[in-house]
Specification:
Helices cover 33% and strands 27% of the residues. By secondary structure, the protein is of the alpha/beta class. It folds into two domains: 132 residues, Rossmann fold; 69 residues, no CATH class. The site of adenosine-5'-triphosphate has 12 residues, from helix 1.
Length: 229
């Protein structure tokens, strides 16, 4: 039977007292690539935040990479985060240190101690994203596409079963977006990593079709059809 990486049952998602999404029911299996689309303000980020423990699950039930979201308090969130990778539109790299040290910072923060093992892991993830010799570059010395690759490398550090990506191509030109999509699909296919990617980029979706969830009028529609808009 397929391994469920995400399961939400009858979930209601709130921002403060405002109900943003209601009766959300989703199952995402190991190795699936799933888009999350929907107009601005319809709740894509709120859904992703629920999945990575930034928004507390108040109503309904859910698990993500084996963690029960209902019982998730702030002490357990770091353990959840170690088991999934998050990629953002604006890269969120530390600007005062080079790529290796950005990655080492995350490893240390997630409990790694052995320098040799950390260096091996960093070399491994940089190779996976095609930045083998770029570890000594500072973020400001890199293009947007390269910085997004570093962000993806960072998400891969703890070999997660799931990557949540919030508009990872949002700041990139079409050609660079294309390269990032190829990288994400390669990670999904070759390492069995499930990927949920929020996007407004219909060119990307049309070129790389996959299961699509759509946030609309307070609901999440599964397997939404997407056409050029
Ligand atoms: N921290 C917050 N506090 C209160 N309300 C919020 C907060 N963050 C988002 N909201 C509200 O929740 C709703 C959903 O926002 P959300 O960011 O999830 O939408 P989105 O679909 O991701 O939008 P976008 O495509 O612009 O990123 C919006 O009405 C927004 O104003």
């Amino acid at each position: 039977m397929a391994e469920k990486i995400i399961e939400l049952n009858n979930v209601n998602i709130y921002q403060g007292d405002n109900l943003i999404l209601q009766d959300v029911n989703i199952v995402i299996n190991r190795g699936e690539f799933v888009y999350l689309v929907g107009k601005t303000g319809t709740g894509k980020s709120s859904l992703l935040k629920t999945l990575y423990g930034d928004l507390t699950l108040k109503e309904g039930s859910g698990t993500v990479v084996g963690f029960n979201l209902k019982e998730m308090d702030w002490k357990k969130v770091p353990f959840l985060r170690r088991n999934l990778g998050v990629v953002f539109q604006d890269f969120q790299l530390l600007t005062d240190r080079n790529v290796n040290d950005n990655l080492k910072f995350v490893l240390r923060a997630t409990g790694w101690k052995d320098d040799k093992l950390m260096n091996e892991k960093i070399a491994d993830v940089l190779e996976k994203v095609g930045l083998k010799s770029k570890g000594f570059k500072m973020p400001f010395e890199m293009s947007g596409g390269e910085q997004q690759r570093v962000d993806i490398a960072r998400a891969l550090l703890n070999s997660p079963k799931l990557i949540l990506a919030d508009e990872p191509t949002g700041n990139l030109d079409p050609e660079t977006s294309d390269e990032i999509m190829q990288l994400l699909f390669h990670i999904c296919r070759d390492y069995g990593t499930s990927i949920v990617m929020a996007t407004h980029d219909y060119i990307v979706i049309n070129k790389y079709p996959a299961r699509t969830l759509r946030t609309e009028r307070g609901r999440v529609e599964d397997n939404a059809t997407v056409s050029m808009q």
